[in-house]
Amino acid sequence: EIVMTQSPATLSVSPGERATLSCRASQSVSSNLAWYQQKPGQAPRLLIYGASTRATVIPARFSGSGSGTEFTLTISSLQSEDFAVYYCQQYNNWPLTFGGGTKVEIK
Amino acid sequence: EVQLLESGGGLVQPGGSLRLSCAASGFTLSSYGMRWVRQAPGKGLEWVSDISASGRTTHYGDSVKGRFTISRDNSKNILYLQMNGLRAEDTAVYYCARRGEGNLLHFEYWGQGTLVTVSS
């Protein structure tokens, strides 16, 4: 099983600032990596797939990068609606696995 | 508009069974693989099971293998999860989700979830 490790667990950021979230895979997943956003009481929402392709209607302030074992989600200028938990997920191998999440909170 | 609507959750005793359903609309169900994901209270996401578009190929997470069965009825646009031998650790919100375009294995669309509570 590929273990996905996200860091930090919590990120405190002021509105308008840049946020950088990391995700590491225990073995290479090529570019088969997705990012999701989840707000309290809501289902997760797809942000990024293929490590760097934004999903439909996702704002350009969200960007993904990386390949192999190291990945980054960057939110260029945090808006109030971006404070949430973010998960990475690999789909290179079965079983599909998620990282433990990074909570982005208001500083 | 793609919509996924789960139902069938509730309170069940340990060792009991439950069948979840996910009604799909806004797309042709028979063209996409589908899956179930769960989230225990206050915890992260755990993939549970996946089924190919035709239903011929299924995959399960180790924690549910042998107890849960995923299936689909493409004629009714419904995805199912039959859960047997339920344990307290199966308590979670269960989401159905659709694979990505081109049947990529990310989770492109999600339902709102249905809560399963296993307790005596």
Would you give an account of this structure?
The complex is a heterodimer of chains A (107) and B (120). Chain A has strands at 4-7, 10-13, 19-25, 33-38, 45-49, 53-54, 62-67, 70-75, 85-90, 97-98, 102-106. In chain A, strands 2, 4, 5, 6, 9, 10 and 11 form a 7-stranded mixed β-sheet that branches. Chain A has a 4-stranded antiparallel β-sheet with strand order 1-3-8-7, with no helix packed on it. In chain A, strand 5 and strand 6 (53-54) form a beta hairpin. With 107 residues, chain A is mainly beta. Helices cover 0% and strands 50% of the residues of chain A. Chain B has 120 residues and is mainly β. In chain B, strands 2, 4, 5, 6, 9, 10 and 11 form a 7-stranded mixed β-sheet that branches. Chain B has a 4-stranded antiparallel β-sheet with strand order 1-3-8-7, with no helix packed on it. Chain B is globular, with a radius of gyration of 13 Å.
Question: How would you briefly describe this protein structure?
Answer:
By secondary structure, chain A is an all-beta fold. Chain A has no helices and eleven strands. The N and C termini of chain B lie far apart (40 Å).
